[in-house]
């Protein structure tokens, strides 16, 4: 058979190898675990306690929270090596497509700003918004997989994705501060609608009341909180610019627990607690100052089932833990010579309390998701109904 007669078959084989090389790289399962060890080695859920204990507060006080690892993306994950001819053809395909060595950089967080999760049994999925990567990272803790959602609509990518609020059907609402609206994604990350377009100015923090379906949106530029019903229609506007109770100066993050809405009133250096049903201000947590427990630039806020309020103080690179009445319990993460670099935050932003009680922190300038675990001394029977 002449070369010319064999050429179509050769071209078909080359095309097949390119398809295998490209498809194989995207479809292979990704599996991994949290990183525990101080030397950077990988650990497993069971291996974590074997690492040197990092706890807060330091001895001789009894420990209340322990370092439980971090995620940056694929550096903690791995794709299983394929055996046999498929692996060979994959390499050939990548070489022919000009991708050999061009896509070797691992997929990892760049500037994570917010974290949330769907709370599904077995761990569920954890969502991390990354304005640096202009994407949503989706970590499946039960299946050990990682996905990247990059589309905000047909032909539209994210610009500055920030706030996150899972939907009851497994989807996700995402506030994009630069686009100026909230995008609703289906469980596979496909855009299926918009909320607040033409109404919101700079949406940032989100919180959802699962019972009523209401979505609370912190509109930072408008200095208010906008409330949308389950159909995505504007229902109410809470607050406005000012420093009086119930007024805001650049609100950025929200949390909802037991009928109460927690609002990080960033430039007023406080967290306001409102009655979610009507927006009635009840109390505030923190005040402006440099004394431990006071606030300078608060960001993320989250409430656990015992009613403890976790507030990210980004200026001091700490997470402050308050009781339900706003009394400081302890700081987590202030830099000290006794604390190794792995356990120090660098401009942390968002925070979320997982169903198992773990506290996850979007550690922005460390480009990671940090995990803190309450010790048995802290764990208590649930007293707060979370949405």
Supply the key terms:
2 helices; 10% helix; mainly beta; Neuraminidase; 387 residues; globular
Give the helix proportion (percent range): under 10%
- At CATH level 3, the topology is Neuraminidase
Overall number of structural domains? 1
Q: Report the uncertain regions.
A: 16-31, 36-51, 79-90, 380-387
Q: What Rg, in angstroms, do the CA atoms define? A: 23 Å
- CA(first)-CA(last) distance: 71 Å
CATH architecture: 6 Propeller
What percent strand? 35-45%
The major β-sheet equals: 5 strands, antiparallel
Please characterize this protein's 3D structure:
The chain has 387 residues and is mainly β. It has one domain (27-37, 54-78, 106-378): Neuraminidase (6 Propeller). The chain is built from two helices and 29 strands. The strands form eight sheets. Strands 2-3-29-28-27 form a five-stranded antiparallel sheet, with no helix packed on it. The protein has a four-stranded antiparallel sheet with strand order 5-6-7-8, with no helix packed on it. Strands 11-12-13-14 form a four-stranded antiparallel sheet, with no helix packed on it. Strand 21 and strand 22 form a beta hairpin. Helix 1 packs across helix 2 (85-96). The protein starts with a helix and ends in a 13-residue tail after the last strand. Mean pLDDT is 83; it is low at 16-31, 36-51, 79-90 and 380-387.
């Amino acid at each position: 058979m002449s070369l010319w007669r064999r050429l179509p078959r050769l071209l078909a084989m080359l095309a097949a190898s390119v398809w295998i090389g490209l498809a194989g790289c995207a479809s292979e399962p990704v599996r991994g675990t949290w990183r525990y060890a101080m030397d950077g080695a990988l650990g497993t859920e069971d291996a974590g306690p074997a690492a040197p204990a990092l706890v807060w507060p330091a001895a001789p006080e009894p420990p209340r929270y322990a370092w439980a690892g971090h995620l940056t993306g694929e550096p903690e994950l791995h794709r299983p090596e394929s055996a046999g001819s498929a692996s060979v053809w994959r390499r050939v395909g990548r070489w022919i497509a000009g991708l050999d060595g061009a896509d070797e950089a691992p997929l990892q967080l760049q500037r994570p700003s917010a974290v949330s999760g769907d709370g599904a049994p077995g761990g569920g999925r954890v969502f991390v918004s990354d304005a640096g990567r202009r994407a949503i990272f989706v970590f499946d803790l039960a299946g050990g997989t990682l996905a990247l959602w990059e589309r905000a609509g047909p032909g539209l990518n994210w610009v500055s994705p920030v706030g996150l609020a899972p939907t009851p059907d497994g989807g996700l609402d995402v506030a994009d501060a630069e686009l100026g609206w909230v995008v609703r994604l289906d469980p596979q990350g496909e855009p299926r609608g918009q909320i607040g377009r033409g109404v919101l100015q700079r949406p940032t923090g989100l919180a959802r009341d699962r019972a009523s379906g209401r979505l609370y949106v912190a509109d930072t530029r408008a200095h208010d909180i906008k409330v949308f019903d389950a159909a995505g229609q504007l229902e109410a506007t809470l607050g406005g610019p000012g420093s009086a109770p119930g007024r805001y100066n650049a609100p950025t993050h929200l949390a909802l627990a037991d009928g109460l809405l927690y609002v990080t009133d960033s430039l007023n250096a406080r967290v306001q607690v409102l009655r979610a049903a009507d927006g009635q201000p009840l109390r505030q947590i923190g005040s402006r100052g440099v004394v431990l427990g006071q606030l300078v630039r608060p960001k993320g806020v989250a409430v656990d089932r015992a009613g403890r309020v976790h507030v990210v103080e980004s200026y001091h690179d700490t997470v402050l833990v308050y009781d339900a009445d706003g009394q400081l319990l302890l700081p987590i993460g202030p830099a000290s010579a006794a604390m190794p670099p792995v356990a120090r935050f660098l401009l942390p932003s968002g925070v979320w309390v997982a169903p198992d009680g773990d506290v996850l922190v979007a550690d922005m300038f460390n480009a990671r998701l940090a995990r803190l675990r309450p010790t048995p001394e802290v764990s208590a029977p649930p007293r707060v109904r979370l949405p």
